[in-house]
Amino acid sequence: MQYNNKTVWITGASSGIGKELAIQFAELGARVILSARNVDKLNDLKATLKGGGHLVVPLDLAQPEHVLSTVTVKMSELPAIDILINNGGVSQRSLFLENDFNVYRQLMEVNYFGLIALTKAVLPAMVARRSGSIVSISSVAGKVGSKFRTGYSGSKYAVVGFMDCLRAEVAQHNIHCLTICPGSIKTAIAHNSLNEQGIAQNKPEKSIENGMDVSVAATKMIRAISNKKDEVIIGKGLSGWAPTIKRFFPTLFNRLTAKTNYR
C-alpha cells in the first residue's frame, strides 16, 4: 500500500508504539494526526517527523463522552481519515482481591470506551466514502489471561470482541478492521501500569525489558495494515506463542499461569 497523501490518526502517540508508528508512517509519506494528553510531547514529536501537514489533536481517552462530542464537531475541520489507529491505553499490575473498584473503571474508560468514542466519531465519514481502516491495538492479554491483569485483560478482551463485531457490520461498506494483539514490546507500559490504587507503579518489568524492539513491532503492524489483515499477534517468545499454546493445550496453559508470580 502507498501512503503518500494518506491521513493516519494515531492515539497514544506521545510515546511507545504510537510514537514509533507516527515516525514510520511519516517516513512512508503519510500525513499523521497525533493524539494523547501531553501536548508538549506531541508538538515535540511533530517537529521531528518527516514531511509536512502533520496535526496535533489533544485527547483524553479517560473522558470518552468529551472525545465523542469534540471529535464529532472537529471532523469537518480535519482531512479525510484513511486509517484510525486506536493505540492509546493503560495497563495494570495488581491482584483482584487488592484492587480498588475504581481501577476497573479507569481501565475500561481509557482502553474500551475511549476507543469506542473515537471510532464512533470517525467511522461515519469512512462509511460515506466507502474507504478506510479502523485499527485497534488490543493485547495478547486480550486473548489469554494471567495473574495481575484482571482489569487490563478484561478491557482488552472487550476490544477484541468489539472489533470482531464491527468488522462484520462494516464489511458491506468496504471498511477494513484490524485487531493487533502485541505481546511484550519494549515500551514504558510497565512503568505506567496501574497498581491496586489506580496509580502508576513506576517500575520496570523483566518481560517488557526483554521484549520486542518497538521499531520492529511497528514495522510488523504497518505490514499487517497494508496486507488488510483481520487480526495479528505480534511478540517474541512466550508472549507471541501464548494464544496458540492456550488454544491447543488449555489445561497446561492454565496451570502454568496459576504458578507464575511475576508482575
TrEMBL record:
InterPro entries: NAD(P)-bd_dom_sf (IPR036291), Sc_DH/Rdtase_CS (IPR020904), SDR_fam (IPR002347). Keywords: Oxidoreductase. Pfam families: adh_short (PF00106). It comes from the Bacteria. Signal peptide: none annotated. Belongs to the short-chain dehydrogenases/reductases (SDR) family. This is Short chain dehydrogenase. It comes from Pseudoalteromonas aliena SW19. The lineage of its organism: Bacteria, Pseudomonadati, Pseudomonadota, Gammaproteobacteria, Alteromonadales.
